[in-house]
Design a protein that fits this description.
This protein has one domain: TIM Barrel, CATH 3.20.20. Helix content is about 45%, strand content about 15%. The chain is built from eleven helices and ten strands. The strands form two sheets. The chain has an eight-stranded parallel β-sheet. Strands 9-10 form a two-stranded antiparallel ribbon. Strand 5, helix 6 and strand 6 form a beta-alpha-beta unit. Helix 2 crosses helix 4 and helix 5 runs parallel beside helix 6. The two termini are about 25 Å apart. The C terminus is likely disordered.
């Protein structure tokens, strides 16, 4: 299973050569210059924050495509990019005033449009919902749009981050894994991996940063560990231990990388 370490400092793309990273569009979109990645990375669209703040996507498909093309060209090593999907947490539904079904339709419609505009970019379809039947309906919408999820290199499962360790999410993950889909779990950290890591092809998390808010900084340059690369890589080692105990493997963090992060 491939685990993407979520980071909020794009410059880390130039400092960690041997593990995959996940970076949000919200951290990159305002930058005039972009770092050149020395590692594989994936792009998160930042949809949860976008919808929570504005109740809609403020950037249209054409502009998003132009921006992601820039990331692919200037940063390089882009493994995949998340679409402008619509999450289905209750707080997001309340903010948009729309139903789960409409969020699903917009999610599928967006992926189709992005692929029409930029078929060369590695867009990843994302399933959204709340209950298992919701996610199954979203999969049906993709099929109706002519998208064969079983043929996709990766299929994201969204709206699970804040309940990733629940039995409901485990049932959802295992149900779609039986369909032989290559699943990516958004925001799946240690508690979730302990339950269903073997059902996933990949996942990501940056929960290390939240935890680091309550840890004193390891050097004079920062008061807490919420923005510390060394702390993030140490947390990543814990993920590797979890995966190892499940009989799975993840990318290694070498002592040399930890030394550079000090």
């Amino acid at each position: 299973m491939r685990f993407y370490l979520g980071v909020h400092q794009p410059i880390w793309l130039t400092r960690v050569p041997d593990i995959p990273l996940l970076v949000s569009h919200r951290r990159l979109g305002h930058r005039r210059t972009l770092p050149r990645a020395i590692t594989e990375w994936a792009l998160d669209s930042g949809g949860f924050t976008e919808l929570q703040l504005h109740g809609r996507w403020q950037i249209d498909e054409k502009d998003y495509v132009q921006t992601v093309r820039r990331y692919a060209d200037e940063i390089g090593n882009l493994a995949w990019a998340a679409p402008q999907d619509w999450m289905c947490e209750q707080r997001i539904l309340k903010r948009t005033g729309l139903t789960i079904r409409e969020h699903q339709r917009r999610t599928v419609r967006n992926l189709v449009r992005l692929r029409e505009l930029a078929p060369e970019l590695p867009w990843v379809p994302t399933l959204q919902g709340w209950t298992l039947s919701d996610y199954e309906r979203c999969a049906d919408f993709y099929e109706q749009a002519g998208i064969d999820l079983a043929a996709e290199p990766l299929v994201g499962i969204g709206t699970v981050c804040r309940r990733q360790s629940s039995a409901d999410v485990e049932r959802i993950m295992r149900a779609f894994a039986t369909r032989e889909l290559n699943l990516h779990g958004f925001g799946i950290k240690i508690t979730g991996l302990n339950r269903y890591a073997e059902a996933l092809a990949s996942s990501d998390s940056m929960s290390w940063s939240m935890r680091g808010r309550y840890v004193s900084g390891c050097g004079p340059s920062h008061r807490t560990e919420s923005n510390c690369l060394r702390f993030a890589l140490s947390w990543y080692r814990q993920i590797r231990t979890t995966l190892g105990s499940a009989g799975l493997s993840a990318d290694t963090v070498s002592p040399q990388v930890l030394g550079r992060a000090a």
